[in-house]
Amino acid sequence: MKNKLTIIIVLLFVCASQAQMKKWTLEECVLYAVDNNLSVEQFELDLETAKIDKTDALGNLLPDLNASTTVSNNVGFSIVPGSNNPTTESTFRLNGGFSSNLTLFNGLRNFKQLHRAKMNAIANQYRLDDLKDDIRLNVANAYLQVLSNKEALKVSQAQYAVTEQDLKRTRELVESGVSPRGDLLEIEATAANQEQQIVNGEGLVLISRINLAQLLQITDYENFDIADESFDIPPSDILDNSAKVIFDKALVFRNDIKFSQSNVDLAEKDLEISKGAYLPTLTGFFNYNIGYSNRNEIPDLNGNFFVPSFTDQLWIFDGVSYGAQLNVPIFNGWSTRNNVKRSKISLERAKLQLELDKLALETNIQQAHVDVTTFFKAYEAAEKTLEARRLAYNYAKERFDVGLMNAFDFSQAQSRVDNAEATVIRTKYDYIFRLKILEFYFGIPLSLD
């Protein structure tokens, strides 16, 4: 029993440790960021408000229905309803009724407002989706930055491990009198410099992890980390498409373009609604009223007046009124005309913004297309440079090991390798990110596969 309890405790501890050290993939980071971003939550509330506005616009097409009641008491002189006799006694009155109004015609503005409300809900959805696209790109960039810094740190640690072996061997040679003490000092300086690079690398990893965690609205920075994976250059045939082809496709599905186009449609609908104010408004109404008073008098068959009961008065003194009201705008201080002019200006502004957004998208795609080619060439050049630096380093090491090269020249060869490896890592992830941007413009979801 004791052994079983021990095993359970160990398993629980292992599970808790694994839960705390969860490693996040890019897909998990993107999904979590989209689901938990505060700006997304704000835009979602705006979308809900737009849906409520649509319900309001639908309600404007329906007749309203209102009930009202009035209770009063009169003390002093008054006229008795029914008999028209004067009285000074207290008079209690109760009046109530129902009323309903329906807009029959207002230049079709009510129908157009309903259509506009539906369009506005769609526009808010595009706006929300566009924000999510930006979040995905920002998260991908931050994620790749963590990967780049981690890989650079691993390289620095591996380089330091090699230098430690050289340092140990050089110390032995110096102590045996084979090598001068200056060689040892030079190797020690190289090791110290690499230690500093490791410290700086650890700081960069930490900062980039914090930046990514903040994008995800995660505050437990110590227990947040990404999956420890090494990514090679992903295969892609995106460059088989010209920048023009990618731009034409992006115009169809990009949410920022859809949002700009929807703003143009909304502005056109606003212009139609403002022009509708030039036309007459026709409203129908219906009213039903009832009343009671403790002084209401009606004549009987003999001509004598009496006060009917409460329920009798509700039917005796009720009444119905119905009809229609026509309002024809003649002059309203140029407000309608000015509103139409403002709507026309807003429409032109929305059209200009759409063209600006298209131009910005085309510029970004052209730049991304060039960047993919440029950064890939930079990566290939960095790879060739690293290969040459490594060959030079191996040759220098052979000479250093047999005493044909001093420690300073050898450390310079090693430093050039370090710099070349750092350049390869930087250009590699620069290229991957630019590649993913271009694929994203083409409609390919973000992934490092």
Unreliable sequence segments: 1-19
Number of strands: 10
Order of strands, main sheet, comes to 2-5-7-10
Secondary-structure content class: alpha+beta
CATH class: Mainly Alpha
Span of the ends, CA to CA: 48 Å
The helix count comes to 10
CATH topology: Outer membrane efflux proteins (OEP)
Mean pLDDT: 87
Strand percentage: 5-15%
Query: How many domains, in number, for the residues?
Result: 1
Largest sheet: 4 strands, antiparallel
CATH architecture: Up-down Bundle
Helix content: 55-70%
Which quaternary structure do these chains form?
single chain
Q: Look at the structure and name the CATH superfamily.
A: Outer membrane efflux proteins (OEP)
SSE arrangement, N to C = HEHHEEEEHHEHHEEEHEHH
Describe the SSE topology:
Elements: H1 2-20, E1 23-24, H2 26-36, H3 38-59, E2 64-74, E3 78-79, E4 86-87, E5 91-105, H4 109-175, H5 181-215, E6 225-226, H6 243-253, H7 255-275, E7 281-293, E8 298-299, E9 305-306, H8 310-316, E10 319-327, H9 335-401, H10 407-441
Parallel strand pairs: 1-6
Antiparallel strand pairs: 2-5, 3-4, 5-7, 7-10, 8-9
Helix pairs in contact: 2-4, 3-4, 4-5, 4-7, 4-10, 5-10, 6-9, 7-9, 9-10
